[in-house]
Hints:
Strand content: 25-35%
Distance between the termini: 47 Å
Largest sheet: 6 strands, mixed
Low-confidence stretches: none
Amino acid sequence: MSSTTPRRTALDALHRSLGATMTDFAGWDMPLRYGSERDEHLAVRTKAGLFDLSHMGEITVTGPEASALLDYALVGNLGSVKVGRARYTMICREDGGILDDLIVYRLGETEAGSSHYMVVANASNAQIVLDALAERAAGFDADVRDDRDAYALLAVQGPESPGILKSLTEADLDGLKYYAGLPGTVAGVPALIARTGYTGEDGFELFVAPADAEKLWQALTEAGSSVGLVPCGLSCRDTLRLEAGMPLYGHELSTSLTPFDAGLGRVVKFEKEGDFVGREALTEAASRAQENPPRVLVGLIAEGRRVPRAGYAVVTDGKVIGEVTSGAPSPTLGKPIAMAYVDAAHSAPGTPGVGVDIRGSHEPYEVVALPFYKRQK
């Protein structure tokens, strides 16, 4: 297979049989939508949606010094994560630039003191993260293994998702907190059941063997048919995460930004013991951010109908005060929305006179605090 041929997930034939519009995403052939992206989006907000996320990059880290390696390689305090829990964190360069944002699961501990973690990277950065972890593992008694081919990943998201999953598993879902994971059997398939997601709704991500993916997809489809579950593509996943104010690597996060520039300085744990990659640069970035606040990530809601796109300038009184990072029509709000980094002086909700330069015309936008949408718990 040439490197230009997109990789296919274990569910590829199934997506095509459902009439999905496929797209190349980070080197994978992925379903963009099955029918109407608006309908898929609203199904997740009000009922449930089923996603194939098998393009995500799973990396297993094991060994007596697995915790120490991750504490050195990543900005978070991974040694303090309890078995069965997960943490959102980042991997940065020596200069503090963000290489990727990650979810790290602590899956187990042996009596001999060996820890077992799974690091989940974005598809577009999986190889970069794998290479960085392998390089940073030098001198640690720990193994870094590429497990991208060992897992398929299905997500069921939305208010009906707990009921759908409960009908297929004996696992204690009521006891499963947000950002936790437990091994269980779903529809007869062994799975890591994680209460995580990227939609702003309650939901679950199910890590299974690729050979079991189709059986699980069909079981979830049948279990959800009476409550409105629909298959969902990457297009509505993007509008869902945008409404929920969740950053996307390559848009809100990049190597040119530190976590402090992205307003996510809280993920950097300076209090942990020992050195970690980027500590010095991030210490400087933290104090810089206090003295001279960086641009702030805000929400923008259109007063008109024109949709802002990534890279468009945010303006006021004819001068540029920021840049749009993500924009789309919001099915929930019924208006175009965007996330943008703007100068701190113009970042307060309700700041007057802010617009987006859309092909030479300054369209008025309301500055709001993120997220645009928060589910009722």
